[in-house]
Fold:
Amino acid sequence: MNVLGIESSCDETGVALVQTRADGPPRLLGEALHSQAEMHQAYGGVVPELASRDHIRRVLPLARQVLSQSGLALADVDLVAYTRGPGLAGALLVGAGVAVALGAALGRPTMGVHHLEGHLLSPFLAGETPQFPFVALLVSGGHTQLMRVDAVGDYTLLGETIDDAAGEAFDKSAKLLGLGYPGGPALARMAAFGDDKAFALPRPLLHSGDLDFSFAGLKTAVMTQAKKLGPNVCEQSRADLAASTQAAIVDVLVAKSLRALKDTGIRRLVVAGGVGANLRLREQLDAGAAKLRATVHYPPLALCTDNGAMIALAAALRLERGLAHTRDDGGFDVRPRWPLEELSSGQAASTVPAALS
Ligand code: KG4
Ligand code: ZN
Structure:
């Protein structure tokens, strides 16, 4: 079965083709991505209207690219999957609209996929697939959550941020340091040249005893330090503040992830979402997990941030397990706000159409 996946929830247009196999995990046949980061840079953040317009321009050329990469024709696509949410409503509607139009033209069903489920399952594209159950640290621009994952479609929320997401903390701090958008990678690059102990920044909720996060106070502390340094700050001080900020965010993410492993007794951690690309986070998680004799799984670096492959993959895995929420009536909807736990309560499940079973 060939699943075409379309991701358009924020500022990346991603398209990919994944093939399910009877004798192994789904295989990625081709993928293409266009990042709008440069376009939004001038505005210091994502402009939703511009994001939607750009998705429309990119999605079909990317789909053509993916098909030619994989040597398949459009008629070989059995299912068209798209990101149903969460994300920007207009941006989601582009992917959903195109997917449903393609499905109607080809006479194939469509499936709306949860963006975070895509991130969560993306390590399955890494070859070495984690066994269930595992703990997942989901760290993206909009979400910071620890989940217990017992199976595809069986997710229990262990803790989450009560205000800003970790990626948001990276991005907002980067903005305060005069770095471009998206700030996470830029801040991480600058942090490599700084002293992570130069500034004493708070580690919110580090000792709260639960698995929740809070990053809004950290952002305020970074703002205070940045103001103190003033507009003529030297490069070294900026690097020091970047390093101290990264250390504060990473310390909390690592401490809570390890606590989740201890609390659940599970010894497998999956890290997903854009912040999962952060090398300091990876180093510290690896070191902490090793002490607990736990293993940490990451998606391939290129699949940490938004992409179409994770959407096609999540659809393929759902389909394999009979959890498919497919439609072939030409209708669709998007869910700009959509808690991941809803997938576990069966609200998204439905039967697989005869054509796919
Ligand atoms: O998962 P993602 O691509 O998009 C969302 O679904 O939000 O995550 C984007 C977030 C941004 O906040 C970006 O700054 C952050 O991931 N990010 C990083 C790194 N690469 C991306 N943060 C820290 N270090 C990185 N290397
Ligand atoms: Zn994402």
Summary: Residues 348-354 have pLDDT under 50 and may be disordered. The CA atoms of residues 153 and 346 lie 8 Å apart. The domain at 2-120+304-356 is CATH 3.30.420.40 (Nucleotidyltransferase; domain 5).
